[in-house]
Amino acid sequence: MQEYLTHKPFDLYALHLFHLVVKHRSFTRAAREAGLSQSALTRQMQALEQKLGVSLITRTTRSVEVTEAGHYLATEATRLIGSVAQALDGLHATFVPARPVVRVSVSRSMAMAHMPGLFHANHQRHPEVVCKISYNPSEAILTALDASEIDVGVLCPPSPLPETVKVTHRFKDTFELIAPAALASKAVTFKRRDRLFHWLHEQPWLMITSTTNTGKGLRRWMKRQQLAIEPTMELDSFDLIINLVASGFGLAFVPRRALALYRRKETLGNIALPERFERDIVAITRKHRKLPLHVETFVENILF
């Protein structure tokens, strides 16, 4: 082992920096997160490639591409960094007196009305536990979970989910088509489906961004319903979409649950369609990793 550590290109810090470059696909953003200059990060990556004797990254003026060898190392590095982080978390939890912390990353496509089911029960039963909450795209949540940067992820899952994670909770999130109250009243007057859909195509639309799993699934469903809509606005927040619809900006599909916390319900109306769009929402943890007791308890207290 001593000979291995002395002569082999094994450096956790270099692997961490490489992980950041792959995560961000950008030397600029990776250097910013690492607290380094871009030139210093570049030298670190060049030294790592030289020691390994393989090319890991192809860098152009516009992008950073990861080679086949780089993808292999990135997968192993993520697992290794995650295991080290888990060991340090366990060490800290066992020997350093402090309030227990649960790190939860929630998809940006979740609404404020989804939050009580995640946090309320655990907050009532275990107020000593600190919840650190972040909003991230689903891809970033999966990467952070694999690297042990978070304990629990909540998202609309891609298909298939990585084999390294397990689903602890799942529920169906049903959507409603909403419109400003005056437009919703107008829609009721159309008795025939073809006339209603013709009218729907003439209206301005707001939609959740197509880069999200929810956005992709919703667009596929709309296409099957023969709703080929080009939105006038794309946003990454259903709460913002609901407020803009109520202000007269157009129509939108939103989670029924997201409407629960909106107080000016008289400004909105529903438009009934023959079918409703549904998405899956899941809570996930990393597989093959024993959760600390306070994290395991938090997961048990999720109410969906």
Q: Could you characterize what this model shows?
A:
The chain has about 300 residues and is α/β, with parallel strands linked by helices. The protein contains 12 helices and 11 strands. It has 3 domains: about 1-80, Arc Repressor Mutant, subunit A; about 80-170 and about 280-300, D-Maltodextrin-Binding Protein, domain 2 (3-Layer(aba) Sandwich); about 175-280, Periplasmic binding protein-like II (D-Maltodextrin-Binding Protein, domain 2, 3-Layer(aba) Sandwich), CATH 3.40.190. The protein has helices at about 1-5, 10-25, 25-35, 40-50, 70-95, 115-125, 140-145, 180-190, 195-200, 215-225, 240-245, 295-300, and strands at about 55-60, 65, 100-105, 130-135, 150-155, 165-180, 205-210, 235, 250-255, 270, 280-285. The strands form 3 sheets. Strands 3, 4, 5, 6, 9, 10 and 11 form a 7-stranded mixed β-sheet that branches. Strands 1-2 form a two-stranded antiparallel sheet. The chain has a two-stranded parallel ribbon with strand order 7-8. Helix 2 crosses helix 3 (about 25-35). The radius of gyration is 23 Å and the shape is globular.
Write the layout of secondary structure elements.
Elements (H helix, E strand, L loop, with lengths): L1 H6 L4 H13 L2 H8 L3 H15 L4 E3 L4 E3 L1 H28 L5 E7 L7 H11 L4 E7 L1 H9 L5 E4 L9 E16 H8 L4 H10 L3 E3 L4 H12 L8 E3 L2 H9 L5 E4 L12 E3 L7 E9 L6 H8 L4
Parallel strand pairs: 3-4, 3-5, 7-8
Antiparallel strand pairs: 1-2, 5-11, 6-9, 6-10, 6-11
Helix pairs in contact: 2-3, 2-4, 2-5, 3-4
Keywords: DNA-binding, Transcription, Transcription regulation
GO molecular function: DNA-binding transcription factor activity; transcription cis-regulatory region binding
Pfam families: HTH_1 (PF00126), LysR_substrate (PF03466)
